[in-house]
């Protein structure tokens, strides 16, 4: 029996949710080790020994520790490739496209989506003033990124092709916040193919289970 994977972080937070969605899709057994990010527990010396940059998630299986959510989902999808949903693509060409869109998520989509969510969801909870200029700029930037997605998704059902993969999964946490937490659903819903893609990926049973975790 494979050892249960510990996930340090919080089930309500975006980057840990990326990992949890992957684990549920793959049927990987996990246990959440609660790190309260609003209380700043990610800066405790014990946590910094696991993740020296002081952000969640971190995973641990036996004595193997990993951080960076996208590295984690790549590693565990490969390690458990024979079980659950295949998230990596089958041919080398499919795998290349999964990697390409995972990189687009990390390099183009993430920064403006992250800035919007931090400003409009996290800062209000911490009493930090919202940076209205950054919100406006991020919204415009993200709109342009999503125009590229609209074009891509008019040609294939999912980002890397006609199969659900890590590339799609990686967008679930921030798309969810745009639509359901910060009032920016229009960014998704005003784009016909992006909306159809979002409706499809957000109704996956694994993602619904992530949203039920506390
Ligand atoms: N690139 C990192 C980003 C992790 C990240 O930014 N985590 C946020 C939660 S979504 C966090 O821990 N924030 C706490 C802080 O910035 O103090 C990853 O993908 O794992």
TrEMBL record:
Q: Which residues form the GST N-terminal domain?
A: 3-84
Domain (GST C-terminal) spans 91-214
Write out the entry's keywords from A to Z. Answer: Transferase
Where is the secretion signal located? none
Q: Does the keyword Transferase apply?
A: yes
Query: Where are the annotated coiled coils located?
Result: none
ATP-binding: is it a keyword of this entry? no
Q: Name one GO cellular component term.
A: cytoplasm
> Pfam families from the xrefs?
GST_C, GST_N
* EC number from the UniProt entry: 2.5.1.18
> Which GO molecular function annotation, any one, does this entry have?
glutathione binding
Quote the catalytic activity from the record.
RX + glutathione = an S-substituted glutathione + a halide anion + H(+)
Looking up InterPro entries in the UniProt record yields: Glutathione-S-Trfase_C-like, Glutathione-S-Trfase_C_sf, Glutathione_S-Trfase, Glutathione_S-Trfase_N, GST_C, GST_Phi_C, Thioredoxin-like_sf
Q: Which GO terms describe its biological process?
A: glutathione metabolic process; response to toxic substance
Annotated PROSITE patterns: GST_CTER, GST_NTER
Give the family from UniProt. Belongs to the GST superfamily. Phi family.
Name of the protein in its database record = glutathione transferase
**Organism taxonomic ancestry:** Eukaryota, Viridiplantae, Streptophyta, Embryophyta, Tracheophyta
């Amino acid at each position: 029996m494979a050892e249960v994977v510990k996930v340090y972080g919080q089930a309500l937070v975006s980057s840990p949710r990326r990992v949890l969605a992957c684990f549920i899709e793959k049927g990987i057994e996990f246990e959440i080790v609660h790190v309260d990010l609003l209380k700043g527990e990610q800066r405790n010396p014990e946590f910094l020994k696991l993740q020296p940059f002081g952000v969640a998630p971190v995973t641990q299986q036996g004595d193997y520790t990993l951080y960076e959510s996208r590295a984690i989902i790549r590693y565990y999808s490969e390690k458990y490739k024979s079980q659950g949903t295949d998230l990596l693509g089958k041919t080398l060409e499919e795998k290349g496209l999964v990697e390409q869109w995972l990189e687009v998520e990390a390099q183009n989509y993430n920064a403006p989506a992250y800035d919007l969510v931090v400003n409009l969801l996290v800062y209000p909870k911490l009493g930090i003033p919202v940076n209205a200029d950054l919100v406006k700029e991020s919204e415009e930037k993200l709109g342009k990124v999503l125009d590229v997605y609209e074009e891509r998704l008019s040609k294939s059902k999912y980002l890397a092709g006609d199969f659900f993969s890590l590339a799609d999964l990686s967008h679930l946490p921030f798309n969810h916040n745009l639509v359901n937490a910060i009032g920016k659903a229009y960014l998704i819903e005003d784009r016909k193919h992006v909306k159809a893609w979002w409706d499809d990926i957000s109704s996956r049973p694994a993602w619904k289970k992530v949203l039920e975790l506390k």
